[in-house]
Design goal:
This protein has eleven helices and four strands, in the order H-H-H-H-E-E-H-H-E-H-E-H-H-H-H. By secondary structure, it is mainly α. Strands 1-2 form a two-stranded antiparallel ribbon. A two-stranded antiparallel sheet has the order 3-4. Strand 1 and strand 2 form a beta hairpin.
Length: 212
C-alpha cells in the first residue's frame, strides 16, 4: 500500500507533548476531539471518499449518514459558533494579530503567508491545526482558514463540525474527479476512522471485524 501523501499523526501525541497548547484547545472544548485519534486505514479513507455522495458514505456494508450532527457526536465537538468554511469572508483586522508585519517584498500577500510571519506563540497551535484539522500537507504557509481556526482560540467561536463536513465534501469531489493516483487528494484519515468507529458501535461491530 502506498504511503500517505499527507502526513497525519497516529494519536494526540502532539498535544500530549505540549500542555500549554493543549490548554488552549481544552478551553474551547476541543480536547476530546484530539483524543479520539487512534490511527487510520488508507483503504477505508479511499472508499469513504469514493462513495460519499454529500449525504451518505457507503463503505462496504456500512452506511454512514454524514451531517453536522453526526460529526459532532462522533468527535465530541461542540456545535457552536460561526458556520464558516474556506472561501467565506474573514475579518482581516482580527487575523492580523497572529502575523508579524510583512516585508515590502511580501506586502502584496492577502490569502497565504509564509510561516515565518506567524508570531512565535501561534506556531505550535498552527502545527496542531495543520496536522489534525486541515490536513492540507502545506506546512510552510499559513492560509486564511488556518487563521480563522486560530481565531477560535481567541474567543471567536467556530462550528468545527460544520467546517469538517464541508472539508469532506471537498475531498470527495477531488477524489471522484481524479483519474489515476488519488493519494494526493486523500486526507482526514484519522478523522474518518473516528466516524466509522462511532457508527460501528451503533451497529454492534468492532473495528477489526469491520476490516475483515
Amino acid at each position: 500500500m502506498a504511503p500517505l501523501s499527507r502526513f497525519e499523526l497516529y494519536g494526540p501525541e502532539m498535544l500530549e507533548a505540549d500542555p500549554e497548547v493543549l490548554a488552549l484547545f481544552e478551553k474551547i472544548n476541543w480536547k476530546l476531539f484530539f483524543w479520539g485519534f487512534s490511527g487510520h486505514n488508507e483503504e477505508v479513507t479511499r472508499r469513504f471518499a469514493l462513495y460519499f455522495d454529500g449525504n451518505v458514505a457507503q463503505i462496504g456494508d456500512l452506511q454512514l449518514v454524514i451531517d453536522e450532527e453526526f460529526i459532532a457526536k462522533a468527535t465530541k465537538l461542540p456545535r457552536i459558533g460561526e458556520r464558516w468554511f474556506r472561501g467565506s469572508q474573514i475579518d482581516k483586522k482580527k487575523f492580523k494579530q497572529f502575523l508579524l508585519p510583512l516585508s515590502k517584498e511580501d506586502a502584496h500577500l492577502k490569502f497565504s503567508f509564509p510561516v515565518k510571519y506567524l508570531r512565535n506563540q501561534w506556531r505550535a497551535p498552527f502545527e496542531v491545526i495543520s496536522r489534525y484539522i486541515s490536513c492540507d500537507g502545506q506546512y510552510s504557509n499559513v492560509q486564511l482558514y488556518h487563521l480563522r481556526i486560530l481565531m477560535a482560540l481567541q474567543g471567536l467561536k467556530l462550528n468545527l463540525p460544520y467546517f469538517l463536513l464541508h472539508s469532506f465534501h471537498k475531498m470527495a469531489i477531488m477524489v471522484q474527479r481524479t483519474i489515476g493516483d488519488q493519494e494526493c487528494s486523500l486526507f482526514h484519515h484519522g478523522l474518518i476512522k473516528m466516524l466509522v468507529q462511532y457508527q460501528l458501535v451503533i451497529v454492534g461491530k468492532t473495528w477489526d471485524e469491520f476490516l475483515k
